[in-house]
Amino acid sequence: MSTPDMTKGLVALPEHNVALATRKVNGVGMDLLGPRTRHGLGWHRAQGNGAAGWLSRPDVRGLTDWAISENADATMTEINRITGTDADMSGWAQGPYNSAVASEDARQFVAAYGGFASVINMHLESIEVEGFYDDPIHDNTRRDLARWAASRAHDDGIAWDRYPIKPDGLTHNYGHREFCGVAYKACPGSVLWAYINGELIDRVQPILKAAQVGATAAKPAGPVYRRAPMPPAMKLDPMPDATMLNGVTFRLVNREFRVEALTGCYTSVGSATRSRSSLRPGDVVRIVYLHENNKWGIAAGGSRIPMAHLSEIVDVDQAA
Ligand SMILES: [Zn+2]
């Protein structure tokens, strides 16, 4: 058995946007408590969507370090960052602490890192998974959560066969409810709670193993892409104003759109199978047909694209 390679940075984070919440005010949704050190991950369910933008507002009484969509787009955004300096914002991800109903893991965490409630928000890197407690979480989101957790666990010194137990003997993962009791708050809710206590471990261990000891065996595989089928209408000249695909009407738009946040490209509407690498902010993509609900488009190459973070490029009249 080879010795695990614990070089920091060996396990990459998943693709994500960075939109740091720089307008927050001390005492409203976050506190400047001094330098933070990550000692684990805090898991939350947002009870809604648009968490990254909402939590970043200066008047909103809450902040986590990350937010991710529960849907196939799995859009992931870093909104706050642990830097180890006095500028670190300890977001109000978590509260309140009630030692009488806290889990044994939660009590150990608080005791180990200072013995007072603020250490939870200071020293857990937190994430909101969008959607409500009982909503399903798409496989793309489950995959990216595992990559995020694996990257952090590796950098925090956890060997693959010990995950999720840290070198100091405490666990790396904490649900909100563990500190306040389920009766006060069920966060992160049934679906995410089940995920972090089972599937996450099953997904993270092979990622860590491949990176730490897999020099000759399975290195982490890159994404597998499959070509998106070209709709028959897109082979016609001229293309019809509307076409039916799988019983759904798509209408011809044939316009360029600018990409505003990382956006996946898929082989079919709602699919988890990627057709190519993700579109990045600033990319321009030609959308030929638009799904009747306007939430999906078909790009010139045939890829099915979620439209949430695309905006149409409007021609500007350049008349002098
Ligand atoms: Zn929570």
Question: Can you tell me about this structure?
Answer:
- The protein contains six helices and 16 strands.
- The chain is globular and about 70 Å long.
- The longest helix is centred in the middle third of the chain and has 25 residues.
- The chain has two domains: 197 residues, 3-Layer(aba) Sandwich (Lysozyme-like), CATH 3.40.80.10; 81 residues, SH3 type barrels (Roll).
- Strand 4 and strand 5 form a beta hairpin.
- Helix 4 crosses helix 6.
- It has 320 residues and is of the alpha/beta class.
- The site of zinc ion has 3 residues, from loops.
SSE topology:
Layout: E1 17-18, E2 30-31, E3 41-45, H1 51-56, E4 66-68, E5 76-78, E6 90-91, H2 104-112, H3 118-123, E7 125-129, H4 139-155, E8 173-175, H5 177-180, H6 189-213, E9 242-245, E10 248-259, E11 263-266, E12 274-279, E13 284-291, E14 296-299, E15 304-306, E16 310-312
Parallel strand pairs: 1-5, 3-7, 3-8, 4-7
Antiparallel strand pairs: 2-6, 4-5, 9-10, 10-13, 10-16, 11-12, 13-14, 14-15
Helix pairs in contact: 4-6
The structure holds zinc ion.
